[in-house]
Amino acid sequence: MSKLFFKGRIETRQNHVLSGYNVNRDIKAGTEEAPIHIVVPTEVRKQEVEAIAQEHSIIANITVDESQDENTLELDTLLNKAKTTVFEKKPNRNDPCSCGSGKKYKKCCA
After folding, report:
1. Which NCBIfam families match (predicted)?
2. Domain boundaries, the chain
3. Quick one: pLDDT at residue 54?
4. What's the pLDDT score for residue 108?
5. pTM for the structure as a whole
């Protein structure tokens, strides 16, 4: 019998596979299918936020409510996406040294 044979109930395994957080979802926030919701205290602030959303082509439902605090968390999240970190490639041992000595990296600066 194979080591990969599942010994438990099959319906339990299927439920476990289907559950979890879906990171690669098809609908992105700020589109027509999933507009973001923003609450602002004044009409002037609403116009400012609408201008920012149109500039970045984000679809938002903006509500003016003086009794609630301003909530622009979803807009801030879309505008300040994290960028991918790129590191410089470290030279291999047998590559020429970057200091310009003409020696191999392993005999010079390693």
Report:
1. SWIM_PBPRA1643
2. 28-78
3. 93
4. 85
5. 0.53
Phi, psi (degrees; rounded to nearest 5) at 79: -75, -30
Q: Are 37 and 63 in contact (CB under 8 A)?
A: yes
Residues 26, 32, 35, 41, Cα dihedral to 10°: 160
Token pair of 95, please? 């590559």
pLDDT digits (tens, 9 = 90+) for 27-50: 788 888 889 999 999 999 999 999
